[in-house]
Design goal:
Elements lengths: L1 H15 L3 E7 L1 H4 L8 E8 L5 H11 L10 E8 H5 L9 E4 L6 E4 L9 H11 L1 E2 L6 H4 L5 H18 L2 H17 L5 H9 L4 H14 L9 H19 L1
Parallel strand pairs: 2-3
Antiparallel strand pairs: 1-2, 1-6, 3-4, 4-5
Helix pairs in contact: 1-3, 7-8, 7-11, 8-9, 8-10, 8-11, 9-10
Length: 245
């Protein structure tokens, strides 16, 4: 994965030249819990200003699965301007989004969209733990502090989405990491969030988290009861609401 991440950075340097501010690895690759069987390689690229159509086309071609095969589930990469990274909003603007997972390969021009709310947490993780790939400016100089109320709102949005669109283990462990942020402001991986929560619950909730952790690690484990998952997520949402009140 290290060689691949370096090749992604080289491709961005070739595309943006002197206008490249930096290429930053984030997500499970820096927070922990990375598993090549199911994890994406998460990358944020920052450029000085808006990209041209030629640059976007070149980036899409250089990052394609055919040109640059990913050793993990896929590449999840967004390119944003320095201004967007310095002024985080609820829906940060982006220049280009690239996904190379086999079942969801896509290239999205940000100029046709109203922004991407998922970028908010990516910005926050990059500021606290993002790893610069190749030359560029350190992440804390590039990504401004994201307001706590914006992070809480996005965590709540992700929790509501997860119960209808994601596997049960994803929803449970995402709820654990959201709970952790509500308690001490730390942004951690889903695995670390689950481990942290295990020390604070017992009974059915503890068993639910243990099963979710096993399933996340691809260990043999029972199916999760959707009703139990929903109850656990609803409890996490109530904690987020209390924190933001």
């Amino acid at each position: 994965m290290e060689d691949y991440a370096g090749n992604v950075a080289s491709a961005m340097a070739a595309t943006l030249g002197s206008r490249l501010v930096g290429v930053y690895l984030h997500g499970s690759a820096v927070l922990g819990g990375f598993d090549a069987r199911r994890s994406d390689v998460d990358v944020l690229v920052v450029c000085e200003g808006p990209m041209t159509a030629v640059e976007k086309s070149a980036a899409a071609e250089r990052l394609s699965r055919e040109r640059l095969p990913c050793p993990a589930h896929g590449l999840e990469l967004s390119i944003v301007t320095f201004s967007a990274a310095q002024h985080p909003t609820a829906r940060p603007a982006f220049e280009l989004h690239v996904t190379t997972a086999p079942e969801d390969t896509k290239y999205v021009d940000g100029h046709d969209r109203e922004g991407d709310p998922d970028l908010l947490l990516h910005f926050a993780v990059c500021r606290s733990a993002g790893r610069l790939l190749g030359p560029g400016r350190p992440a804390p100089e590039v990504f401004a502090t994201v307001a706590e109320d914006l992070i809480l709102a996005q965590l709540a949005r992700e929790l509501r989405w997860s119960t209808g669109h994601a596997p049960g283990e994803y929803a449970v462990l995402n709820a654990c990491r959201a709970w952790r942020f509500a308690v001490d402001g730390a942004l951690v991986s889903k695995i670390d969030g689950g481990r942290w929560a295990l020390d604070r619950v017992s009974g059915p909730d503890g068993e639910l988290i243990r099963t979710a952790l096993d399933r996340q690690r691809r260990l043999s484990a029972a199916e999760l009861d959707p009703r139990a998952v929903q109850r656990f997520v609803d409890h996490a949402l109530s904690r987020l609401t209390e924190t933001s009140a």
